[in-house]
Amino acid sequence: xxxxxxxFECADPDARESLVEWFEExxxxxxxxxEDHVHGDLVDGDxxxxxxDLAWVAExxxxxxNEPVPGLLVESAPLWERATVATxxxxxxxxxxxxxxxxxxxAPTEAARYEGEDGLAGxxxxxRFAMDHQFRFRAFAHAPPAPMFTEPFGAFDAPVGMGWxxxxxxxxxxxxxxxxxxxxxxxxxxxxxxxxGEFYDAAEADE
Length: 207
Hints:
Blueprint: E1 2-9, H1 13-26, E2 37-43, E3 49-57, E4 60-65, H2 72-76, E5 82-89, E6 94-104, E7 107-115, H3 122-133, H4 167-176, H5 182-189, H6 198-205
Antiparallel strand pairs: 1-4, 1-5, 2-3, 3-4, 5-6, 6-7
């Protein structure tokens, strides 16, 4: 079994709001007022409904489905700047593939592709996209796809504690082969879900 994680980067929070409205108008998703997540269904290219979990933070929208939703990227491309689609093995929680797209002339165009690596989970993919592309990837949206044997990190807590003592950054460098950069670390530190210092302090607080 697999799950599919979509991450959409919009031009700004107003454009992100337009994308959330598009989900509500185009799919049987009833977005509640004053909320930042919703559970509903997405309609694929064959008019089949697929259960989905959506969340949104700043200029990003995140969606989790069991399988890829045919047509979703193409139909929504006029509303986002960049997007990633990643598949995960639900038994090992390993990323099997992650693809970055740019919206060019309102159509998705592949910009980068990463094949799965044994043991590379959601946080490692988040790290890689932050360092290589300054993109705020998430492995799922509001809630994990199932009970997880590793600590779950969703739309609202993914970067918490990643930089504590630099140990995790060293671990992600070893896993991905991507060295941390000052620009990438600053990008992670300034994630909109984090309070000041939380990028470093949360892991120590959890002990």
